[in-house]
Amino acid sequence: MSGSLSESTLNNSAPEIPIEFVSEDEMALIDFALAAACSSIPPIRSPFTFQRHARSIQSISVLAKRSLSGLTVLDIEDSGDLASTHKKSKAAETFFNRFRKKKGLAVTDITATEWCEKQMEFILLRAKRKTTTAMKVGSARHTKLEEEVVKKVKVRVKSREDTWALKLLNFMIGANQLLFEGLTRELPVIGFAEGVWMVGVIDEIRMPATEIERNPILVDTKTRVRDTLPAEPQRRNGRLQLMCYKHMWDNLVADNFPFNHFFDFFTLNPHSILSEEIREKAADSGFLAETLDDLVRLYRNTWSMLPPANDQLLLR
């Protein structure tokens, strides 16, 4: 819809601003044109700047960490030691240390920062994002897909070590399912990449049907309110998420998992005896473990049996 300025508007008040509605396809074209224009001029640097043109996974993760820092002078990437970046002054404390120090940087933190770094800042500082009806429907769809191949069992945890042990155990069970059945879903992944601990949950991993190709295919499922394909910015954001998962996967297959750094960063006791219930569940799945250190070693051994991820990623 477009409008013109009336005589009374010109005389009595500020001019009325014309409004125009555009479709998702038109927005995709506008976004593409903006990216092309930006690529021809030097970028303006700021703590929250995230350029829209193509970048490597390394540069993207660096920018995400800088966006979580909130400061230009204190950069997680430059610090070299994430465990020692904590400052006594809250003014100098990074967003990473305030909100992700004991959790790790989630893959969705990176994609949310790429989508809108200011929105991510507001979510961290003010409140969690409101759960919409569409988000609830999407969550229900993911749960249904998981239940098609995975049976969930409730397990009580009594310590932080138990919580992390359960995450590691769920990965190993899912990895075995992938190797023997060719498919698993909702696989939790914990890894060290680009100088930071990262966590994520891969929607689906499937083994190729051919005997020649044995590199697992990573799949991410997106739900939509309307029965239409998303615009290019949304598809790009989904591709970024899959590329982050592949980067983590290949990094772990290459045996890049620093033991001591893991326990120090998450403040975990490697010799802590796991709860009896977790030990029993682990034994039922074929994993004999008494301590968290035992499960971390089994986690690393499981990765040694897995091949790198397929270069072809599937956004469904």
TrEMBL record:
Gene Ontology BP annotations: interstrand cross-link repair
One Gene Ontology cellular component annotation held by this UniProt entry: nucleus
Superkingdom: Eukaryota
InterPro entries the record matches: EXOV
MF-aspect GO terms: single-stranded DNA 5'-3' DNA exonuclease activity
Record's keyword terms, sorted: Exonuclease, Hydrolase, Nuclease
Family, similarity comment: Belongs to the EXO5 family.
This protein's name: Exonuclease V, chloroplastic
Taxonomic source organism: Morella rubra (Chinese bayberry)
Lineage start: Eukaryota, Viridiplantae, Streptophyta, Embryophyta, Tracheophyta
